[in-house]
Amino acid sequence: MLEDKNQLRTPLSKLGEFNLIDHLTQHFKITHESTIKGIGDDAAVLNFGNKEVVVTTDFLVEGVHFDLSYMPLKHLGYKSVIVNLSDVYAMNAEARQITVSIAASNRFPLEALEEVYEGIALACKIYNIDLIGGDTTSSTSGLIISITALGEANKEDIVYRKGAKPNDLLVVSGDLGAAYMGLQILEREKEVFKVNPNNQPDLEPYTYIVERQLKPEARKDIVKLLKDLEVKPTSMIDISDGLSSEVIHLCKQSKVGCDLYENKIPLDPQVISTCEEFNIDSTTIALSGGEDYELLFTISQEDYPKIKGNPNLTVIGFMTDESTGMHLVTRAEEKISLIARGWNSFDDNESNA
Ligand code: ADP
Ligand code: MG
Fold first, then answer.
1. pTM for this predicted structure
2. Closest approach atom of ligand 1 to CA 241
3. Model confidence pLDDT, tens digit, residues 188-221
4. Spacing, Cα 314 to ligand 2 middle (Å)
5. d(Cα 270, Cα 273) in Å, to the nearest integer?
6. Domains, the chain, ordered by start
7. Which residues have any ligand 1 atom within 6 Å of their CB?
8. Contact 60, 345 (CB under 8 A)
9. pLDDT by residue (tens digit) across 216-254?
10. Residue in 39, 56, 249 to alter for ligand 1 test, most ligand atoms within 8 A of Cβ
11. Cα separation, 247 vs 258, whole angstroms
């Protein structure tokens, strides 16, 4: 039987990451009362008592998610924790513990793994996280890190991807597109270095965007800010794949449409100038770039006065009826359909997840 099945060889790139997850998990049913939310959000939600527990896992694979020729090992350790914490905060929960599993080939000496753990330790210290376990094994090709993060929240505080209502405002923290443009700079310098190893790159004009790529932060502060402002989002997600892909997740799971305004998308001046230098459209980068680890959420209109003028938050659109569809309203006031072009792990042309 197995042999027959193996003769069918559908390339993973045919499905895309989200279809693949759906395909592999479609027949799994939730059977336990303690499983409040399984697959399909930034994190799963479990309840063993009065507090709810959120759990999330992410892989980082050498050559797919990171390139050690410009990613220092310490930063890699730091970033692998951050991407998981971000999913916990996206549930409006507080991150508490992580487990770390590592597979390394014999190319990596002890000192290399020590550096990775220095980064992990720094993230644990800054975000107040306990490292509680994991697994260690060898690998035939490169370095693979898988981290699981656990967090907790009161039941009434958890925010899912579903829950947005028509007329809710769409809000994003920080600014977008910087991590992707930082990656473009690092890739360019890597090519320059290959040609002339004596050439010292001048990264000074790009410090912000390179840091956003190499040392991102998770928006724990935004979860606290919203609590202090007494604003509970109606839906929330973190921006790992790109704004358009995340907006579509919120819309689909909430069964609403959306008008997203191009001229409201927050961009750092370094993103704008680097996009000009590379001759790429900054809106495209914000919509499809990925790895920003900002929080994207919806709030009801009556909460608007509470967030108005806050430098960390930008209203970029509003939700509409599902039948209206999902749109980008351009600077020229044209309405175009929003499509998911976030990074796709299995896309033949892109190697980033
Ligand atoms: P994120 O970008 O927030 O990390 P993903 O797109 O990786 O989210 O995952 C979406 C949902 O699918 C999550 O609930 C995640 O736990 C689940 N998921 C991802 N990969 C698998 C898998 N191989 N098996 C089961 N569930 C998965
Ligand atoms: Mg997420």
1. 0.91
2. 2
3. 998 888 888 887 778 888 999 999 999 999 999 9
4. 19
5. 5
6. 2-157 (3.30.1330.10), 169-337 (3.90.650.10)
7. 21, 24-25, 39-42, 58, 87, 240-241
8. no
9. 999 999 999 999 999 999 999 999 999 999 999 999 999
10. 39
11. 8
